[in-house]
Amino acid sequence: MLEVRDIHKVYENKSLLNGVSFAVAVGETLCLLGASGSGKSTLLRIIAGLEKPDGGLVLFNGQDLASTPPHLRDFGLVFQDYALFPHLDVHENVAFGLKMRRLRRDEISERVAAALKLVRLTEFGDRTVTDLSGGEQQRVALARALAIRPRLLMFDEPLGALDRTLREGLLNELREILHETEVPAIYVTHDQEEAFVIADRILILYHGAIIREGTPADVWADPQSAYVAEFLGVGTMMDGIATSETEFQTQYGSFVVDCPHKHSSREKVRLLARPVVATDEANTIRGVVTDVIFQYDRFKVTFDNGFYVYLNEAPKIGSERTVQVKIECLV
Q1: What SS3 string covers 196-223?
Q2: Do residue 262 and residue 142 come from a single domain?
Q3: Quick one: pLDDT at residue 331?
Q4: Domain range for residue 114?
Q5: HSE-up of 85 (CA within 13 Å, CB side)?
Q6: What is the pLDDT of residue 279?
Q7: In this structure, are residues 90 and 140 in contact, taking their beta carbons and an 8 Å threshold?
């Protein structure tokens, strides 16, 4: 099991990582999700041994890895730019790490064949990597990482260079491969959709700290902070002013909120609005539909006042619509 304890990193007098701690269990895929500059790639490089932290520990099965160089950690890395050798064919690219470990020729051939089979490239061994598509090159990079039988796999924005169709297909295949091999993995991305497909557990990084952790379903259902709700796009965020213990005034009207926090009169808060199945709650939004976008199994519906909700059915643009909403107070 990988364990990261209280990692700190400062660069040019700015704190990039501020006390990050987590663990990755056997067979688990953990996703580090955050905007550019949140510290996720730096954290990955520290775990790989490519950078040293200014404080904290990286351990594997209880062993401190501070004195272990990158090539002896037995961690596989897959990058966005593939990092393949253009002068070598597919077989030789996948075999590279095995040759560095001075394995026997027959064992190298066996492992390369097994890795190419896992990534559905069995017949591609003698192909030149520059003749492959972006998706095929990324599979070769994955096969190379798998061939060394790593204790941990790490992915740094691995699908960022691919178009949407290739990305979705490869993401699903990658998820199947990780479950099949049961290799623990850390997947770094800024793409929420990728994270929700691939991850067993999500860590959201903001300014070098973990501000939300949980399964994709838990994080979506309960973002716990205004930043996470806005970053994931789970609903409309509003500025509110407390007019009583349970009522808040916003640019969209007045709402009653069952809030766990105590607020003083005129205190400013951040509110999240999401549609709900009809209940006894009194909160509703009414507006003219100006835009409807299909997103997988639902529709993002925007009103003329800028408010948007996700609905299971698509209303007509230009029609008036009243939607009952759940209002949550976030910190």
Answers
A1: HHHCCEEEEEECCEEEEEECHHHHHHCC
A2: no
A3: 65
A4: 2-226
A5: 12
A6: 56
A7: yes
